[in-house]
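dumping these here so i dont lose them again. two proteins, back to back, each one seq then structure tokens. dont judge the mess
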Amino acid sequence: MRTASMKIGPVSTMMVPDRRADRSLLATSLTLAAMSLGYGVVQLDVTIVNTALSSIGASLGGGVAELQWVVSAYTIAFAAFILTAGALGDRLGAKRVFMTGFALFTAASLACALSPDAVSLIAARCVQGLAAAILVPNSLTLLSHAYDDEKARGRAVAMWAAGASLALTAGPLSAAR
């Protein structure tokens, strides 16, 4: 536990715990976990769908063209909106935009799971790509704001990227089950 400077005077000369430092450490750790989760689900979703394409085709009855669109709809929406989503976070607030993106990504994931046919799945994947485009730049912005110290920020970004890399590699393992 970190301690503040000693109080001088008639009250006390003992060290007093600095509760702000503890809260700040907890807040930055929770921010890192939440931002890593946001980026991680984006990466996991990319690989898990690619690995499960044959099962998706068998389940929904789509051909090769539909399966290509299941992947491409997500990728095109992600690429088309990532810069706009970052600018939107700068204007409206990264936290608000990130939370909206996470809710949208969750709703789109549910829509993907409940899709009765390939067309519905492609539409839901498009919304997922949009939500992913919202999550990635705003998670990095929030992470940068949470860490004042340059070294700590560098370590946090490295852990954020490493967590996403682990999620990227976990996709094929999860889909293989």
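---- next one ----
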Amino acid sequence: MNTRSWTNLSKHCIARSNGLHRLILVFSGLAIFIACLGLYALAAYTTEQRTKEIGIRKVMGASVFQLSAMLSADFIKLVVISFAVAVPVGYFAMHEWLQGFAFRVEISWAIFLLAGLISVMIAWLTVGFESLKAARSNPMKSLRTE
């Protein structure tokens, strides 16, 4: 084979890899968005179910920060547990996938730490909005409806 065909082949492989990268990026973003919508809906449902408790706590002197932390803590615990389950699975899947390449690359635990921090931050922002809305509501409205 001549050099021109190798150059064309390498350009074709790089272009194909870039297209796959964009496709994975788009669908990953879509999956994160759908997960955030589900988490928000679950937080809204939970705060709706606990309106009387929130109203009583607010009347008894709980601050907005305390109420928000109480509502967000359950969801953050769930995210941390799911992350703890996902890390070993992701590590072994990535390790097996990387073994198929000619150049060996070690997987850094910093990647997993960063992914965990980002997932907790996304969950906190998603749930935090709904919990702040519930914590700032008028407690008399919630107690009057019960």
